[in-house]
Backbone:
């Protein structure tokens, strides 16, 4: 039996610049981090005593006799790619899917890692990242960037870069952040769950189509998002959490300019309800639902934010989560 544990990733800045159609021409830069929430993939060989050849358990249960019968596209294509047969796979996670925190890519990486281990083969982080990108972006034809698959493999806060000249090369360099800065960031950082789930690919396909069609505003915004990601790395390495929060706000405004679908009435209400308690705000992933990230004002607690949101939203599913960046 093989069990893999893969952390989820969170993008602070630069999301969108890792889309192939953009970084092929301009390069890409995303500042991201892992945090203390994980997905778990359990894989083992299925004994030949059942009426089915493969059993899969995720949000639903599938029992099939051929790979073509598998409904889950990532599992189906991964099993074909690595010639996997007669297995039982179980997926569990600390976070819901479609939340803006790279859950599908972390699952892809963890699943491939488990498959290789079950075959008795070693797969490096670089190999897993490249094959997860190929699985999601080519075999499954999912819209999206190239940083999610790398973000969950490299621990800590780092800059993930995509080279315009060498398309297949994804760079990853850790940020030199002091212990004091990381402690302050963890004290002031929290996630807010909107209670809404969404499909990122629906939002991203619109952005890609506008970029490919030559929309000048889309190119300008993505280029500015990339520039801010690089600036934010410098601010964190200087220990300037307040500067981080201000740039987070700038990124949020650029994201709204890039795609109006990244926000909605619920998200706007959440941010406006806690405006006096926070210094910075941004959506996670492509937006439209899922998680929101905020930087609290100094002295403000997560409990204060939770109390305020419960007063406004009551039983709507909006929750505040404290997490530790790792």
Residues:
């Amino acid at each position: 039996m093989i069990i893999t544990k893969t952390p989820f990733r969170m993008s602070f800045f630069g999301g969108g610049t890792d889309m192939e159609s953009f970084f092929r021409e301009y390069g890409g830069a995303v500042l991201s981090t892992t945090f203390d929430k994980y997905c778990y993939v359990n894989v083992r060989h299925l004994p030949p005593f059942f009426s089915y050849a493969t059993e899969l358990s995720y949000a639903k249960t599938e029992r099939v006799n051929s790979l073509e019968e598998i409904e889950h596209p990532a599992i189906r294509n991964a099993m074909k790619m690595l010639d996997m047969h007669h297995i039982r796979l179980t997926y569990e996670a600390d976070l819901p899917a479609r939340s803006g925190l790279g859950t599908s890519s972390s699952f892809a990486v963890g699943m491939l890692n488990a498959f290789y281990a079950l075959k008795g083969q070693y797969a490096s982080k670089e190999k897993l990242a490249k094959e997860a990108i190929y699985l999601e972006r080519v075999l499954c034809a999912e819209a999206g960037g190239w940083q999610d698959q790398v973000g969950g493999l490299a621990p800590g806060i780092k800059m993930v870069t995509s080279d315009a000249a060498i398309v297949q090369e994804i760079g990853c360099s850790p940020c030199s952040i002091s212990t004091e800065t990381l402690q302050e960031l963890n004290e002031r950082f929290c996630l807010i769950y909107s209670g809404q789930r969404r499909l990122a690919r629906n939002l991203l396909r619109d952005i890609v189509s506008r970029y490919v069609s030559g929309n000048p505003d889309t190119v300008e915004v993505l280029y500015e998002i990339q520039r801010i990601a690089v600036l934010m790395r410098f601010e964190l390495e200087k220990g300037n959490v307040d500067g981080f929060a201000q740039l987070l706000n700038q990124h949020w405004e650029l994201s709204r300019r890039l795609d109006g679908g990244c926000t909605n009435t619920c998200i706007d209400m959440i941010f406006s309800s806690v405006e006096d308690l926070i210094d910075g705000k941004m959506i996670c992933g492509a937006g439209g639902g899922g998680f929101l990230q905020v930087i609290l004002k100094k002295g403000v607690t997560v409990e204060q934010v939770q109390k305020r949101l419960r007063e406004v939203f009551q039983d709507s599913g909006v929750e505040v989560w404290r997490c530790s960046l790792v």
Summary: The radius of gyration is 20 Å.
